[in-house]
Design brief:
globular, Rossmann fold, 7 helices, five-stranded parallel sheet, alpha/beta
């Protein structure tokens, strides 16, 4: 394989994973997010970076959204929604966060590759990126790269769906950008 083919091959792999998401309950996730008093997002490592990008876009749509772990994040309440992004669905801090979410009566959306994980079992809404259905050379996408990159694209797609539902545009969101441009 030519060196120039590596990025394109990764994008093709992401496309294969995204095509395998037909069992996801996007409608339920969208409804929870739209009707939430506040939305909280959690992820660690590279999944956390994808999660933070999603939280930023929610804020730019005018929603009350926070990333769990930041110093200015308020407490989760019963009318709130929490989205946890976890490749394995078994990350201990994510499981602890999910248990707290359920205990306070908030709703839990989980985005993972592992539909039989601990997080998957306690989710109100489960979104699965079936990375395991795609065969690939792990040199092209080491460790959790394929899940993490696909999660970023998937969450951006979810933003597009929310924009349509909420009547948001690029122009309306730009006015809420941290540095108005």
């Amino acid at each position: 394989m030519d060196d120039r083919d590596f990025p394109l091959h990764l994008v093709e792999l992401m496309g294969e994973v995204l095509k395998s998401t037909n069992g996801n309950d996007l409608e339920a996730a969208i409804n929870l997010l739209i009707n939430a008093n506040q939305t909280f997002i959690y992820g660690v490592g590279r999944s956390g970076y994808a999660s933070k990008s999603f939280a930023m876009r929610l804020v730019q749509m005018g929603m009350k959204a926070y990333f769990i772990g930041e110093t200015v994040t308020p407490i989760v309440g019963p009318n709130d929604v929490v989205l946890i992004v976890s490749n394995t669905g078994e990350t201990m801090s994510a499981i602890q966060t999910a248990n707290i979410v359920r205990r306070v009566g908030a709703r839990l959306i989980v985005l993972t590759r592992n539909r039989v994980s601990k997080l998957a079992h306690i989710a109100n809404v489960l979104l699965v990126l079936d990375v395991d259905s795609v065969e690939f050379d792990h040199v092209i996408a080491p460790l959790g790269t394929l899940f993490e990159n696909t999660a970023l694209v998937y969450l951006d797609g979810l933003i597009s769906l929310l924009m349509v539902r909420l009547g948001e545009t690029d122009e309306s969101m730009r006015k809420r950008h941290a540095i108005w441009v």
